Amino acid sequence: MTENEKIFLAKSSIKAADLEHRRKINFNIGKYDTAVVQGKKQFSDLDLARERAKNIKWRAIETLDKQLEDFELNFSKKGGKVLWAENGNQAVEQVLNICREKKCKTLVKSKSMVTEEIHLNEALEKKGIESVETDLGEYIQQLDNEPPYHIVTPAMHKSKEDVAKLFANKLGTDPSLTPQELTGVARNILREKFASAEVGVTGANFIISEIGGIALTENEGNARLSCSFPKTHIVIVGIEKMLPTMNDLALFWPLLSTYGTGQQLTVYNSIVSGPRQPGEEDGPDEMFVILLDNGRTHILQNPKMRESLYCIRCGACLNVCPIYKNIGGHTYGTTYSGPIGSVITPHLKGMEEFKHLSYASSLCGACTEVCSVKINIHELLLENRKESVDEGLASMSERVAWKAWKIASKSRKLMNMGNGRLKSKVANRLFKQWVDGRGDLDFSQQTFNQLWKNRYK
After folding, report:
1. pLDDT digits (tens, 9 = 90+) for 148-162
2. Are residue 276 and residue 330 in the same domain, yes or no?
3. pTM for the whole thing?
């Protein structure tokens, strides 16, 4: 058992018994569920919309090399600069080089889950650069020195009382402030940061090869401010976020909004295709797009796992997953938690260290059922398990136990030996790791043969 797996199991045991945590999550996800039901009504044929979205992502991923080249060509025509990063270290180094050149002291960030993946904030802090999260949920998490809890709702596990207490401790505000007043406090602080920052960093919900632009969808407007206030705008985005044409947004924006927050469309939707052009009043002097691989081509070359790159990060699979709702987002110990995180993380960060996440599933199939682009998530979790065994990552005790189980299961003579109590005792000792977190295996006192004979004498 790896150290990561030990930590995961220990944290899971603690969090699963935390009833207050469960109450908060069920409350917040309950509000989400209600909103999504209403949001889905905008589609006359939701299943067809999801199927079309999957086909568009299939086309984008199957022709990703050409799409990326087209994006670079079209974006460069408008004065933008494209940088390629094979891994997280290269992406961080490129950001640091730009900040060094611009003499950056303050950097504002928005809509950038991928910067959590490459640990950009830590790298900037070491260089004496203040990095400020401007999305309210991310800002709350940064104040509390915690990573995001959820792909879409970073502070989902916090109640309004928790946030008020945090602001009181960190910012000296009144602990009885309402959510509206807390938002006002954050707004006043962040507006000053937007005005003084030399560099703005965002992610991208989609990148569009046809026009050489990035698409952002948000509810607060902070991504727009991060794009336009600082003189330099850096976009860090995974290469899988590709869409072939601008027209595809007519499907993907409503689909992402509905499955992400239950809205028909988010409040702010932006397409940014380069730095400020002649005659334009707003926008940065320079714009860079860093196209990040960081293990994505490793997934791309796997014919079965390639489907996971269709994900648009709507978070729907997290909200429906019984495991996620019990153990929470931080327990996974990864940037991307929940079912889709359990699929991609072993391939992004190493199967040996993170194969245990693929076993943290009931395989109920709810994640597949709600996926906005119809990814067969639970089947990919099973595929991860198979790959981990094929790579020889199963422990010796596990291999011996399953071999013994296989031999016994294929022999009626062996299956009929002994009574149920003896079989239960042997199995519970043989599969100790299995029963540690579950009820004991309990065999019938009569074998199937005996039950058959008693019924059909």
Report:
1. 999 999 999 999 999
2. no
3. 0.92
